[in-house]
Design brief:
Order of helices and strands: HHH
């Protein structure tokens, strides 16, 4: 089993070859640089979210999505969504999709699936479909 130091050395080597080895670290020329970039981008995003508030941040995302859709065109946007769905399926598996579907199936225009599940005493295990931190 490789030590943490060996793993970091391998990741640094890949980063120096131009590969992104840290999510959010794109453009960093070393492992350390990618870690710093990712941290800075994360903090920047958090600050921006605080500045804009929930509704402002939601609007920012909507506008970004519209811009991306214009760039890719309808077919490209569909393909992007398909790829995202496939990635999500790999992460949460069949069990996660089943649990997520149970919650979604309970939702109505008046109440969320979470509210209906609580009212009706139906247990939903969100840990099966929530993103897991590595």
């Amino acid at each position: 089993m490789a030590s943490e130091q060996e793993i970091r050395r391998e990741l640094d080597e890949k980063a120096r070859q131009g590969k992104t080895v840290v999510p959010g670290g794109t453009g960093g020329k070393s492992l350390e640089a990618q870690e710093h970039l990712a941290e800075g981008r994360s903090r920047g995003g958090q600050m921006r979210a605080e500045e804009l508030g929930h509704e402002g941040y939601k609007e920012l995302g909507r506008k970004g999505g519209e811009t991306r859709k214009e760039q890719l065109g309808l077919e490209g946007y569909k393909e992007l969504g398909h790829k995202g769905g496939e990635t999500r399926k790999e992460k949460i598996g069949q069990e996660g999709y089943t649990e997520m579907g149970r919650k979604g199936g309970l939702s109505t225009t008046e109440k969320s699936g979470e509210e209906r599940a609580a009212e009706e005493g139906i247990e939903i295990d969100e840990s099966k479909f929530r993103a897991k931190n590595k």
